[in-house]
TrEMBL record:
The keyword Aminoacyl-tRNA synthetase applies. Belongs to the class-I aminoacyl-tRNA synthetase family. GluQ subfamily. The lineage of its organism: Bacteria, Bacillati, Bacillota, Bacilli, Bacillales. Catalyzes the tRNA-independent activation of glutamate in presence of ATP and the subsequent transfer of glutamate onto a tRNA(Asp). Glutamate is transferred on the 2-amino-5-(4,5-dihydroxy-2-cyclopenten-1-yl) moiety of the queuosine in the wobble position of the QUC anticodon. The keyword Metal-binding applies. This is Glutamyl-Q tRNA(Asp) synthetase.
Length: 319
């Protein structure tokens, strides 16, 4: 069976070079192993997703030299490749979890949870672990709370170790309960990233998930969902995030580092790829390269951060 990878951009902003690194790595992993790639637009958060960003992201990825076998414009055997059109599948999974007693209604508001401390390492994809306030409510208490509030639905994280072998970072060990019960459907009806991405990767037959290390602690949560839903989990690997010299993550907010602005500023895609490849260690020093030249050179990149310092920045912008 062919391996299947994916890239899953969120159209709530423009792609920045960190996203480009993740997309290029997922592409290289599949092209090196003769696998297939699907592109899935993760527009589940309707309040933040914009169709114009989705279009721009597809164009930016093409500009970089990426192609994909299945996607929103191309279609494919697992269509639709747009999360906002896959809600019936998420609802079905939610029902299954509910029937199996794996969910409970949560009436906590954002302000109830605001004072909880976030994980110290700064890589927490879910924010602070939920301490389980609503888990033990009696039926009577739920009835009273339900009278003036629509609840969110939380998934009960199992007790005990969740271990997995990260293809790039090596053995990983998490304590399930310490991650906290997480929301699978919000009070406003929106399905969570964790549920949507698990259902999608499973139903799209994805065998290899390669994504940024910011999502490392989402993996044990998703593994718990795979188990609860009786689905086969893919292999996971997490690639280092790009950070500046002070260790601050390059974020979407740094407008000069979006693909759109690099392109407008006349930076060639080969130059951006050469920069990323040098940071990853696929080539010895930055020099312009095409994506296909990197196929035989692609290899795992270890660690959780790569430093994008001033020297690299000035090389990138040198005409
Ligand atoms: N949509 C997510 C993002 O843009 C990626 C999800 C994933 O790769 O699992 O950060």
């Amino acid at each position: 069976m062919a391996r299947r990878g994916r890239f899953a951009p969120t159209p709530s902003g423009l792609l920045h070079i960190g996203n480009a690194f993740a997309a290029a790595a997922a592409w290289l992993q599949m092209r090196q192993s003769g696998g297939e790639i699907a592109l899935r637009m993760e527009d589940i958060d309707k309040a933040r997703a914009r169709p114009a960003f989705a279009e721009q992201i597809l164009d930016d990825l093409r500009w970089l030299g990426l192609d994909w076998d299945e996607g929103p414009r191309e279609g494919g055997p697992h269509a639709p490749y747009v999360q906002s059109r896959r809600e019936a599948m998420y609802e079905e999974a939610l029902e299954q979890l509910k029937e199996e007693g794996r969910l409970y209604p949560c009436y906590c508001s954002r302000s109830d949870l605001a004072s909880l401390a976030s994980a110290p390492h700064g890589l927490a994809s879910e924010g602070a672990a939920y301490p389980g306030f609503c888990r033990g409510l009696t039926a009577e208490e739920r009835k009273i709370k339900a009278a003036d509030k629509t609840p969110s639905q939380r998934f009960v994280m199992p007790e005990g170790a969740i271990a997995f072998e990260d293809g790039w970072l090596g053995p990983q060990l998490f304590e399930g309960a310490a991650l906290g019960d997480f929301v699978v459907k919000r009070a406003d009806g929106m399905f969570s990233y964790q549920l949507a991405v698990t259902v999608d990767d499973a139903t799209m037959g994805i065998t290899d998930v390669l994504r940024g290390a910011d999502l490392l602690d989402s993996t044990p949560r998703q593994l718990a969902l795979y188990r609860a839903l009786g689905l086969k989990a893919p292999e996971f690997a997490h690639l280092p995030l790009l950070a500046d010299a002070d260790g601050v993550r390059l974020s979407k907010r740094d407008k000069s580092l979006t693909l759109a602005s690099l392109r407008e500023g006349g930076v060639a895609p080969e130059r951006l790829l050469g920069l990323l490849a040098a940071m990853a260690g696929w080539i010895d020093r930055p020099e312009p390269v095409e994506l296909r030249e990197l196929v035989p050179l692609f290899a795992p990149v270890r660690g959780q951060r790569l430093v994008f310092g001033k020297d690299l920045r000035s090389w990138l912008f040198k005409q």
